[in-house]
TrEMBL record:
The keyword Transcription regulation applies. PANTHER family: DNA-BINDING TRANSCRIPTIONAL ACTIVATOR DEVR_DOSR. The keyword DNA-binding applies. Residues 478-543 form the HTH luxR-type domain. InterPro entries: Sig_transdc_resp-reg_C-effctor, TPR-like_helical_dom_sf, Tscrpt_reg_LuxR_C, WH-like_DNA-bd_sf. Keywords: DNA-binding, Transcription, Transcription regulation. This is HTH luxR-type domain-containing protein. It holds the Pfam family GerE. It comes from Litchfieldella qijiaojingensis. Coiled coil: none annotated.
C-alpha cells in the first residue's frame, strides 16, 4: 500500500507530539487511498496544532460524514462537536453553533447514552456563564462531568472542573472555585489529557486566575504552560497566549526588555491566527511597556494596533495622556470608562488608574470613592496584588488629605506586599509616597533614603516618566529650605501672608479647619516665631509669598 511508508511514522510522530511531522506524514499517507477514521482524527488534530485551521476544519467535517455513512453516530457527533467548538472559540458563532447543534441532534435522534452527550452541553454552560447565570452554568458543567466520569473520559472531567471553578468564582466563592481550577490542572500535569483539551484547560485556568488577580497561581501555571509548549516545538494555537502570559509576569517582575521581546513575539504569532482574542491584548502589553519607558510615540502606535484588534485601550491610554501632561484628556477618559464599566473585572482593572488621575486633578473625594470600592473588591477576592493596590491608594489619598502620619501605615503595608510579589516598579512608586510622608513629618533623612532607593530602582528599570516625576517631587533644596517646611506648609504660609483666616484657607485648600490649625502650629514652631503676623513677615523676608 502507498500508505505503508508514512502511516506508521505518522502515528509514531503523533504519539511523541511531533505535530509537524505527524501532519506531513499522515497527509502523505492519504494520497491515493483512504485512512482509517482513527488516523484521520490524528491528522485533523495535528493540522489544528500546527496552525492549519482551515485544513483541520475540512478534516473534521470529512470524518463526521464518513463516520455518519459508516453508522458510527457517536464518532460522527464527536467530530461535529470539535469542529463546532473550535469555530465558537475563534469567534465564528453561527457556524460553530450550527455544528454543535448538529452533533446534539444526531445523539438525540439515536437516543445514545455516550460521553459525547456530555460534550455537546458544554457550550450551553458557557452561554449561561456569559449571561451571568453562574449557578445554571455550574449545574450544566457538573452534568457534563458526570458523563465524563461515567465513561472514563479525563478530558471532559477536566473541562467540567474548569467550568465549575469558573462558575463558583463568578458567584463569589473564590476559594472553592480556585480549588477546582487546580484539580483541572493536576489532570493536565499528570498527562491524562489530549493536546486540544490540555490547551483549553491551560488557557482557561490562567485567564481565570488573572481575572481574580491571583498572580501566584497565574505565575505557577504560566510556568507550567511554558514547559508544555516548549515540549512541543511545532505547537501553534497556544504558544502566542503563552508568550502573552509570560510577558505579563516579566513586566511585573521588572524584566521589561524580556517582557517586550515576548510580547512582540506574541503579536507576530497571534496576528497569523484570525479570531484569536489575545492579539489585541498582546499589542496593549507592548503599548504599556513603551508607556512605562517613556517611549510615548511607540506607545501610541501600539495602542492603535490593539484597538484595530478590538481591544479596549483603557486605562493605559488615559495614563499615557497623564504622563504627556494632557490631564484634562486623561480625566475625561478615565471618568467615562469608570462610569461605563459594570463588571467587577473591568472595574478592578481601571480603579487604580482612576484614583491616580483623580488625585492628579485634585478631586480627592472621587479618588477616595474609587479607593473604597477597590478595597471592597479586595476584601472579596483576598488577593495580595489587590491588597497592595488598595493600601497604596489609601496611603496616597491620606497624603493628599494632609495626614502623613496616618498614611505611613497603609503605605508600608503596600510596600511589604509589593516586595513579596517581587514587583520593583510598584514598590518604587510606593517608596516615593513613603518619602513624601516622611518629609512632611520633618524626617528628611528617611525621606532622602526612600527617594534614593526609588530613584535607583526606576533607573534600573528605565522608567523615564516616573524618574522625571520623582525629580519634581524631591524636597526643596537645602539652600531654600532652612525653615524645613513641607510643601503644604509653604502653601499655607503664603495664604497666611495674603491675610486669609484659617477658615478661608481650609475652604481654598479643601481641608478641614482642624488640619489648617495643625499646619499653622507646625509653621510657627518650625520658624520659631510667636504669631501669624511674624510668620507672614518671615515669608515676605524669605521670598516665600
Amino acid at each position: 500500500m502507498k500508505t505503508a511508508g508514512t502511516l506508521h511514522p505518522g502515528r509514531a510522530s503523533f504519539q511523541r507530539k511531533a505535530w509537524a511531522d505527524a501532519y506531513a506524514e499522515l497527509s502523505s499517507a492519504t494520497q491515493g487511498t483512504s485512512l482509517e477514521l482513527d488516523d484521520l482524527e490524528r491528522l485533523a488534530t495535528a493540522a489544528y496544532l500546527v496552525g492549519k485551521d482551515i485544513e483541520s476544519c475540512d478534516l473534521w467535517a470529512r470524518i463526521h460524514h464518513d463516520a455518519l455513512t459508516a453508522g458510527d453516530i457517536a464518532r460522527s457527533a464527536r467530530c461535529a462537536f470539535w469542529l463546532g467548538f473550535g469555530l465558537l472559540m475563534s469567534g465564528e458563532k453561527a457556524r460553530g453553533g450550527a455544528w454543535v447543534a448538529r452533533a446534539r441532534r444526531l445523539l438525540e435522534e439515536e437516543g445514545l447514552d455516550c460521553v459525547e452527550a456530555g460534550y455537546v452541553i458544554v457550550p450551553d454552560a458557557l452561554k449561561s456563564l456569559g449571561k451571568g447565570d453562574h449557578m445554571e452554568a455550574h449545574a450544566i458543567f457538573d452534568k457534563a462531568g458526570e458523563f465524563g466520569r461515567r465513561f472514563a473520559d479525563p478530558n471532559l472531567v477536566a473541562i467540567s472542573c474548569l467550568g465549575r471553578g469558573q462558575s463558583l468564582i463568578e458567584a463569589g466563592r473564590i476559594q472553592e472555585g480556585a480549588t477546582l481550577l487546580d484539580e483541572a490542572m493536576v489532570a493536565m500535569e499528570a498527562g491524562e489529557l489530549s493536546p486540544m483539551a490540555a490547551g483549553i484547560i491551560y488557557c482557561g485556568v490562567i485567564e481565570t486566575c488573572q481575572q481574580i488577580f491571583d498572580l501566584r497561581r497565574a505565575q505557577e501555571w504560566t510556568t507550567a504552560l511554558t514547559r508544555w509548549c516548549e515540549s512541543q516545538p511545532d505547537l501553534v494555537p497556544y504558544r502566542g497566549r503563552c508568550l502573552v502570559h509570560r510577558a505579563e509576569i516579566m513586566q511585573l517582575h521588572g524584566a521589561w526588555s524580556e517582557a517586550m521581546s515576548e510580547a512582540e513575539k506574541a503579536c507576530y504569532q497571534l496576528c497569523h491566527r484570525p479570531g484569536e482574542a489575545a492579539t489585541g491584548y498582546a499589542f496593549y502589553l507592548c503599548a504599556e511597556l513603551h508607556r512605562l519607558r517613556g517611549e510615548f510615540t511607540k506607545a501610541k502606535q501600539a495602542y492603535e494596533q490593539a484597538s484595530r484588534w478590538g481591544y479596549t485601550l483603557q486605562p493605559g491610554l488615559a495614563l499615557l495622556r497623564l504622563a504627556q501632561g494632557q490631564v484634562a484628556v486623561a480625566e475625561a477618559a478615565i471618568r467615562r470608562i469608570v462610569n461605563e464599566a459594570t463588571d467587577r473585572t473591568t472595574r478592578t482593572g481601571v480603579l487604580p488608574a482612576y484614583v491616580e488621575i483623580m488625585l492628579s486633578v485634585g478631586d480627592v473625594p472621587a479618588a477616595r470613592a474609587g479607593a473604597d470600592e477597590l478595597s471592597r473588591i479586595a476584601a472579596t477576592l483576598d488577593a495580595p496584588f489587590l491588597w497592595a493596590l488598595t493600601t497604596g491608594a489609601q496611603g496616597a489619598i491620606l497624603l493628599a488629605e494632609d495626614e502623613p502620619l496616618t498614611a505611613l501605615e497603609p503605605l508600608r503595608q503596600a510596600s511589604r506586599i509589593w516586595e513579596e510579589l517581587e514587583a520593583p516598579y510598584e514598590l518604587a512608586r510606593i517608596r516615593i509616597l513613603i518619602g513624601l510622608a516622611c518629609h512632611q513629618l520633618g524626617d528628611d533623612d528617611t525621606a532622602r533614603m526612600e527617594f534614593d532607593a526609588a530613584h535607583w530602582s526606576l533607573q534600573q528599570l528605565g522608567a523615564a516618566p516616573e524618574l522625571s516625576r520623582l525629580d519634581t517631587l524631591f524636597p526643596i533644596g537645602a539652600s531654600d529650605n532652612r525653615h524645613h517646611l513641607t510643601r503644604r506648609e509653604v502653601q499655607v504660609l503664603r495664604l497666611i501672608a495674603s491675610g486669609k483666616t484659617n477658615k478661608a484657607i481650609a475652604a481654598e485648600l479643601s481641608l478641614s479647619e482642624r488640619t489648617i490649625d495643625r499646619h499653622v502650629s507646625n509653621i510657627l514652631a518650625k520658624l520659631n516665631v510667636p504669631s501669624r503676623a511674624a510668620a507672614a513677615a518671615y515669608a515676605g523676608h524669605h521670598n516665600l509669598c
